[in-house]
Design goal:
The protein is of the alpha+beta class. It contains eleven helices and 13 strands. Strands 1, 2, 3, 4, 5 and 6 form a six-stranded antiparallel beta sheet that branches. Helix 1 packs antiparallel against helix 7, helix 8 packs antiparallel against helix 9 and helix 10 runs antiparallel to helix 11. The longest helix has about 80 residues. It is rod-shaped.
Length: about 675
């Protein structure tokens, strides 16, 4: 049996190489999904927090404005409700000086005729009164409204709340105003951020100037879409497009919020790197946890696979032993799963193969014994044929001598006719010759009877040889039937392997190990089918040899029958010769007794001698034919002996094939 030198890989290793990468990929996918979900959640949370923060800051700024406007509106209403003289109005203006930190200079009033009033301690400069922003704003509104931010004489950014005073009974227009520092707004913008590490600045969209910023150098600067700072340029682009939606600008999450109806936009932003710093930490932590989880899962999977494939290892060893010809194993099964079912089926197959191989072995032994008997019979027949040939050679020599004697008799008879005087002397010589001829004839007759007995024995041996060959043919037919049964079992095993492969395919990943086992069983069935085919070919060769042996035996039997018939004819001829010789001897005796009658009977003796010479020639021809038949018998016996040797070698080859299978010793192995 050809040994498979291909490197084997265990099912455990295959499962580990498949499951561990799959689990690792799943863990990595889960980590990526978790990371992205966490990133999205943190991003959404940051957006919401940033929106909430910028809304809170905007509300605080708007509240600051409303509070200041409410205070100033109360003062305006008081002035409008009371018809104050200048002294009373001055005292009121002095009372508002440093009254509120948001407008420390207090309240001041200007009239359309150029008259101005302010607190005594105020340093307010009224230069360019009619061109000032606060005055123009006051002339355009009755209620208090704020001006656009501008720089005062000291260079500080301020806004003014201005409104026209309603005077009763006068045509003079008076404007009340108060300057409010934006320092408080800057504090609100920079200090009221609820989101850690976030920044904010306030922009007046009327002129795109920055009203409040953490960087004091940017206060009063104007935003432009062509700004060298990519972030400020992006903010300017959004404000110019009046797009106040939350957006990612130059790597910063940026939120916009309008401050009431002031035209101010509060811009709050935080770098994405700060937002996702925790996400990066979370990702690193997830990677570490994933690696630990993969290692733990690999250990657990290894133990599970080891537990599941343990019975498969034993079953694989049993199948390997069976594929190498060892059917001495018996498999017991404790569990009730598919592996146990396979073990049970394999055990039944092993038992069936043991019984089958035992039957084949017995048949091979019987065939070998019968081949030995056939070979011995063929050798005996060959020896008998050789003896027959030798006997025929001796018979031929005897016939040659007899022919020579008969010729001598003829010559003597002729001489007897011419030499009557010497008839008695020559008659005595003829009498001696005839006695020798009688002795030789008796010997030839005995040898011919021996040849006849030998031919009968050859016929019996040929009959035994035909019977033995017929038994060999019957045994080969039984072997053919057994081989057919082996082929059917191999086919059923192959079908079982196919069904197991289908069930394993239905089981998916869990059935891959069983699919490998089913494939091994299919290979075993294929090997069994190949062995059946080889044995079938061997049986066909044996059938062919048996047919040749039977045909050769039939031909040999026919030749022996022909030889036997010829020998029996020769025996009859010898009997006739013997009788003729006895008659001749009697006649010679009469010649000796009646020498005086020699002349009258000499012619008759000569004629009889010629007839005897012709008969001796016929006997010689018959003996030559018998020698040829004996040679044919010898050659046929050699062919029968060669066929018997071939039959014996075929039985030995069959026994050698069967001896490769082990079926005697039984070992029990369990499939758990």
């Amino acid at each position: 049996m050809k040994e498979n030198t291909k490197k084997k890989t265990s099912i455990s290793t295959k499962l580990l190489t498949i499951i561990v990468p799959v689990v690792s990929i799943l863990v990595v996918v889960l980590i990526l999904i978790s990371f992205n979900v966490s990133k999205k959640m943190i991003q959404d949370s940051s957006k919401e927090l940033l929106r909430s923060s910028v809304s809170s800051q905007s509300a605080k700024i708007n509240s600051w404005l409303d509070q200041n406007l409410s205070t100033l509106s109360a003062a305006k209403q008081a002035i409008e409700a009371t018809d104050m003289d200048d002294a009373t109005l001055q005292r009121m203006l002095n009372g508002f000086y440093n009254y509120n930190s948001n407008f420390p200079e207090g309240i001041y009033i200007a009239t359309s005729d150029g008259k101005t009033m302010k607190a005594s301690e105020s340093s307010k400069d009224f230069t360019g009164l009619k061109d000032s922003a606060w005055y123009k704003k006051g002339l355009s509104t009755v209620s208090l409204a704020t001006t656009a931010p501008y720089q005062n004489s000291e260079g500080a950014m301020i806004i003014s709340a201005a409104g026209m005073l309603q005077d009763k009974g006068t045509s003079t227009v008076r404007v009340m105003s108060a300057d409010m520092s934006l320092d408080s707004v800057t504090i609100i913008v920079n200090a009221s951020i609820s989101m850690e590490d976030a920044s904010a600045f306030l922009v007046d969209t009327s002129n795109m100037s920055i009203l409040a910023h953490r960087d004091s150098a940017l206060l009063g600067s104007t935003l432009s879409t062509s700004d060298s700072d990519a972030f400020l340029a992006g903010v300017a682009k959004k404000l110019a497009a009046r797009d106040y939606t939350l957006d990612d600008i130059a790597g910063n999450m940026t939120a916009f919020k309008a401050v009431g109806s002031t035209g101010w936009i509060l811009v709050s932003y935080i770098p994405q790197s700060i937002i996702f710093a925790d996400v990066q930490k979370l990702g690193t932590l997830m990677i570490i946890i994933g690696i630990i989880a993969i290692i733990l899962l690999a250990l657990v999977i290894y133990q599970v696979i080891k537990y599941v494939t343990k019975p498969i290892s034993g079953l694989t060893k049993n199948i390997t032993d069976m594929s190498s010809g060892d059917f001495t194993i018996e498999i017991s099964h404790k569990s009730n799963d598919e592996i146990a079912t396979m073990g049970e089926s394999l055990d039944e197959f092993s038992g069936a193969m043991r019984h089958m191989i035992a039957d084949i072995r017995d048949t091979a032994e019987n065939l070998e014994s019968q081949a030995d008997n056939s070979s011995n019979a063929a050798h005996e027949m060959h020896e008998a044929a050789k003896i027959q040939g030798q006997s025929m050679e001796q018979l031929k020599e005897t016939v040659d001598q007899l022919s020579a004697s008969v010729n001598d008799i003829a010559q003597n008879a002729t001489t007897l006719a011419n030499v009557v005087a010497d008839t008695r002397e020559r008659g005595e010589t003829a009498d001696e010759k005839m006695k020798q001829t009688v002795a030789v004839s008796e010997k030839a007759k005995a040898e011919m009877e021996q040849v006849g007995a030998a031919m009968n024995e050859i016929l019996d041996n040929m009959s035994q040889l035909q019977s033995a060959i017929n038994k060999v043919g019957t045994a080969s037919e039984e072997i053919t039937n057994i081989i057919g049964l082996i082929g059917e079992i191999a086919s059923e095993t192959n079908l079982l392997s196919l069904n197991a492969s289908i069930e394993a395919a239905r089981a998916g990943e869990a059935g891959r190990g069983f699919a490998v086992v089913a494939s091994e069983i299919g290979k075993l069935a294929t090997n069994s089918s190949d062995s059946v085919e080889k044995i079938s070919k061997l049986i066909e060769e044996i059938h062919s040899l048996i047919g040749d042996a039977v045909a050769q035996a039939d031909r040999s039997a026919a030749n022996v029958n022909e030889s036997s018939t010829s020998i029996h004819g020769a025996v009859d001829t010898f009997d006739e010769i013997y009788r003729n010789i006895e008659e001749t001897n009697t006649m010679i005796q009469e010649v000796l007794d009646k020498i005086e009658e020699v002349d009258s009977v000499a012619t008759n003796v000569a004629a009889v001698s010629e007839e005897q010479a012709a008969s001796s020639e016929e006997i010689l021809s018959t003996s030559e034919t018998m020698v040829e038949q004996a040679n044919h018998i010898t050659e046929n016996s050699q062919l029968v002996a060669a066929d018997s040797e071939d039959l014996k070698k075929s039985s030995e080859r069959l026994a050698e094939h069967v001896s490769k299978f082990k079926i005697d010793k039984v070992n029990t192995k369990e499939v758990e």
